[in-house]
Amino acid sequence: MHTDSRGDSPETPVIPRLRGVLESIPTYKPGKPATAGDGPVTYKLSSNENPYPPLPGVMESVLGAAGSFNRYPDMACSGLMAELAERFDVPATHLATGTGSVGVAQQLIQATAGPGDEVVYAWRSFEAYPIITRISGAASVQVPLTGGETHDLDAMADAVTDRTRLVFVCNPNNPTGTVVRRPELERFLDRVPSDVLVVLDEAYREFIRDEEVPDGIEIYRDRPNVCVLRTFSKAYGLAGLRVGFAVAHEPVAAALRKTAVPFGVSQLAQDAAVASLRSEEALLERVEALVGERARVSAALTAQGWTVPGSQANFVWLRLGERTAEFAAACERAGVVVRPFPGEGVRITIGETEANDLLLGVSEAFRKEL
Ligand SMILES: Cc1ncc(COP(=O)(O)O)c(C=O)c1O
């Protein structure tokens, strides 16, 4: 009987050889969508999205680009790069784009770490970090958050070894919304060896109102091992178009261009990002409204008796432990979908006022039963 080179008979289905490491990698879990259909209206507070629809100018630029998507996009994202370079006063050679900032984060790991290497980050933090680290073959070193739900930067510096290739500092941290401030960040950066890349993930930068939190782009200027990640998905409201970028010194930015998926950022996304930067005033007004809602929701939760870590992002965190799933289910019954992390807590995006009110109704009733 004919056998193939692995000795399988034709009747035995041949399974392609996948990398063993995949077995230890969870699939990324997106925030649950709001339920569609004839039932009551539901609100999606599970993915830290901006609840506002695109601004008119942004919509027009996307519609303009839509007529030519039979063509590949501008691979160098030249228009967007020029706009960003001017906006942040950085050389265009210090910029790199990707399919959302998660795409850029993955490019960073591919550029720095592989089997035998380590990537250090706080935990809990952005759930893509363990996934993209394992995919590269590197190992994660997760440093627990402090009791106050903030990065423990001293412990993170202690966790850096000669195997460490990259450290993520998520500021504000997803899912807790907590921040690291200038003196502690500077002290940490002074301790990390200069050949280890420190990635300041600032996906929620525009929501920060605490003046003690440094702008990563100011920090990167005289620290060649610091890279800043930003995105158009959150404050700028372009989550569905997939565009994020990094600001880093030239060797890192050049490496990012090598590890990018060619043509990953569509022309629609590039044009929408440029239009968003040009409509910034209107966009940031909306961000201001969300910041106001964040203050209102946080104060109301605190008044109800919850411990709410101070959030500088567009979400708040409730540590519910074993009651997490129950709370998430109660929210869903009331028409709001939140993001549970089983056994730990829920992350609640600040959304439309009506959605925030529904959430506060649930949290009040739940609190009374505790
Ligand atoms: C901390 C953090 N970084 C990066 C991202 C990725 O966002 P995007 O890929 O849409 O830019 C997210 C999204 O939730 C996030 O929370």
From TrEMBL:
HAMAP family: HisC_aminotrans_2, Phe_aminotrans_2. The lineage of its organism: Bacteria, Bacillati, Actinomycetota, Actinomycetes, Kitasatosporales. GO terms for biological process: L-histidine biosynthetic process. Residues 44-356 form the Aminotransferase class I/classII large domain. Transmembrane segments: none annotated. It catalyses: an aromatic L-alpha-amino acid + 2-oxoglutarate = an aromatic oxo-acid + L-glutamate. This is Aromatic amino acid aminotransferase. It comes from Streptomyces xinghaiensis. Aminotransferase that catalyzes the conversion of aromatic amino acids and 2-oxoglutarate into corresponding aromatic oxo acids and L-glutamate.
